[in-house]
TrEMBL record:
GO CC, alphabetical: plasma membrane
Keyword entries, A-Z: Cell membrane, Membrane, Protein transport, Transmembrane, Transmembrane helix, Transport
GO molecular function terms attached to this record: transmembrane transporter activity
Topology relative to the membrane: Single-pass membrane protein; Single-pass type II membrane protein
One GO BP annotation of this record: protein transport
TM stretches of this protein: 12-31
The organism's place on the tree of life at top rank: Bacteria
Organism: Caldimonas caldifontis
UniProt family annotation: Belongs to the ExbD/TolR family.
Record has Nucleotide-binding as a keyword: no
Subcellular location: Cell membrane
InterPro entries, per database record: ExbD (IPR003400)
Pfam families referenced in this protein's UniProt entry, alphabetically: ExbD
Name of the protein: Biopolymer transporter ExbD
Length: 141
């Protein structure tokens, strides 16, 4: 008994249908691809053109420097912990009717601002606003 089986035909790869499929895929990719450049965004914060600030019965002004240091009503705070900020805000406000005005440097980290917002929530002060400077007036108006 001879179990060896010998093939006489060699397998072939059909190249023409393969090339046709690749050309269709290439055309599809070329038509559906979007080419875009990602440019660096130039952000200059904060500037606002708004109405004059309204008079509030009690304001607690929280200043944030570019380095992330805090001051409440122009009195520097030692430390950056949220619990410490909440305690200082609670004592400076004297109640829950005060408005917290966040006056952050344009180069201050967003985390510093979020810390003040979190501390205000913990202190029970729900009214927040941000201090900005007015942009330069537009000529011709």
């Amino acid at each position: 008994m001879n179990f060896s089986h010998r093939r006489t035909e060699e397998p072939e790869i059909a190249l023409i249908p393969f090339i046709d499929v690749l050309l269709v895929i290439l055309i599809f990719l070329m038509l559906t691809t979007t080419y875009s450049k990602f440019a660096e965004l130039q952000v200059n914060l904060p500037v606002a053109d708004a109405e004059a600030p309204r008079d509030h019965p009690k304001e607690v002004i929280v200043s944030i420097s570019a380095e992330g240091n805090y001051a409440i009503n122009r009195r520097p705070i030692d430390g950056r912990a949220v619990d410490l900020l909440a305690a200082e805000l609670r004592s400076a406000a004297g109640g829950t009717e005060a408005v917290v005005v966040i006056s952050a440097d344009a180069n201050a980290a967003h985390q510093s601002v979020v810390n003040v917002m979190d501390a205000s929530r913990r202190a029970g002060l729900n009214q927040l606003t941000f201090a900005t400077r007015l942009s330069e007036p537009v000529r011709g108006r």
